[in-house]
Design goal:
Shape: rod-shaped
Strand order of the largest sheet: 1-2
Number of domains: 2
Strand content: under 5%
Length: 197
């Protein structure tokens, strides 16, 4: 039973002979009051301890939470720094790769240009060599006195005057026979159609 107003209102102690209270009953009520007061005191102490413990636990939880927040912030800051460092390194590597790629492309373009220049020069040299050999061949076959060989300047003649060449078809026939003898000895050759007979 709780110690409240109802409890105290319910106490009825019989008066013995209208003058005295029943001592046993009074003692029993007082003992009940003592027991309830002791129980309330114990409950009050227990709740007070629990409250202090709860305050301690709460303070400890707040301290732990604060430490956890600080640790999380440090980890986040370190992660941001590492991410920034990795991003900077990646950008530097990408720029280096771009420069390397550009340098390789420039080198390839220079090498191709140099190669093309050498090939062009070789072609020009070959053309000049073939031209010189052709002139020598033509001039060596049937030189005509007073007529220039290919590549030589023409003699001074009046405009419209015929050149001092003999019949050109005879020269072409002779060249065709020479070429036929070089290319396929023993086979007859038609100089007009450039076909074997």
């Amino acid at each position: 039973m709780a110690l409240d107003q109802e409890y105290f209102d319910a106490i009825h102690i019989d008066v013995v002979k209208k003058k005295y209270y029943n001592a046993g009953k009074v003692e029993a009520v007082l003992e009940d009051i003592r027991q309830q007061a002791a129980a309330l005191t114990e409950e009050n102490r227990r709740l007070h301890d629990l409250l202090e413990t709860g305050d301690g636990v709460m303070a400890e939880a707040e301290a732990t939470l604060h430490d956890a927040r600080l640790a999380a912030q440090k980890i986040l800051d370190r992660a941001k720094q590492q991410a920034a460092l990795l991003l900077t390194q990646a950008q530097a590597e990408a720029q280096r790769q771009q420069q390397l790629s550009t340098a390789r492309q420039d080198l390839a373009v220079r090498q191709v240009t140099d190669c093309l220049s050498r090939v062009r020069q070789m072609q020009l040299d070959a053309i000049e060599d073939l031209d010189a050999q052709w002139r020598a061949l033509l001039c060596g076959l049937y030189p005509v006195d007073g007529a220039p060989c290919l590549g030589e300047s023409l003699p001074d003649t009046a405009p419209g005057a015929p050149l001092a060449f003999t019949d050109l078809s005879d020269k072409i026939d002779a060249i065709a026979r020479e070429l036929q003898a070089i290319g396929a000895p023993g086979k007859p050759f038609d100089p007009h159609t450039a076909e074997p007979v």
